[in-house]
Amino acid sequence: xxxxxxxxxxxxxxxxxxxxxxxxxxxxxxxxxxxxxxxxxxxxxxxxxxxxxxxxxxxxxxxxxxxxxxxxxxxxxxxxxxxxxxxxxxxxxxxxxxxxxxxxxxxxxxxxxxxxxxxxxxxxxxxxxxxxxxxxxxxxxxxxxxxxxxxxxxxxxxxxxxxxxxxxxxxxxxxxxxxxxxxxxxxxxxxxxxxxxxxxxxxxxxxxxxxxxxxxxxxxxxxxxxxxxxxxxxxxxxxxxxxxxxxxxxxxxxxxxxxxxxxxxxxxxxx
Length: 271
Known about the structure:
Structural class: alpha+beta
């Protein structure tokens, strides 16, 4: 079994190298569409610009990734949550942080993660504007531009910079209430609390030790799965709000250094 796992990891490492090429090409395309002075005038124009980015990049990214793994499935719905059918799936976001991109700000990327039987096994996150490329293979560590990533080792929330994301529009009052309660509770314990989108851009900072923790109500796979693998491969821990290991079925999400997980669970478990 150990030999089989080693062989699979070697195959995944080769696939990672090929995935990097595909994601970089799509990231370059999204970069060509970036305008620092972009300012949507209203909601209809904003939604049109978001759709135009998705349409422009998705076709290229999907074609490239499926060519690498012809038997894999493609997750069409970026807002999908919950477990996937057995087998291999590409979970990708052609414009993660699309709303930032179309407002001329910097926190956006192209992401691609291969999920095998509901376990993320490799991921690539490309930030072309910042010239940053994050990558990880299950069991092989996490890297930024070839340098190993390590989560923060702060022992206490009292010194921690923590972040959460915003609800998907239309999620409803219950979701909004839980998010609001979680922010209020965290304000009582952490040094600095912020709310930002997209989730992936917060999670790469957790993997890199720049943020100490990220939590999220809900389970939108395309926003969490890439960062979940990066954080765990950088030595972090990813759980739900009760402290159970995070899976694609989990209703909520925490990512941090292992030393801080219990403190975060204590803040969030009763919300």
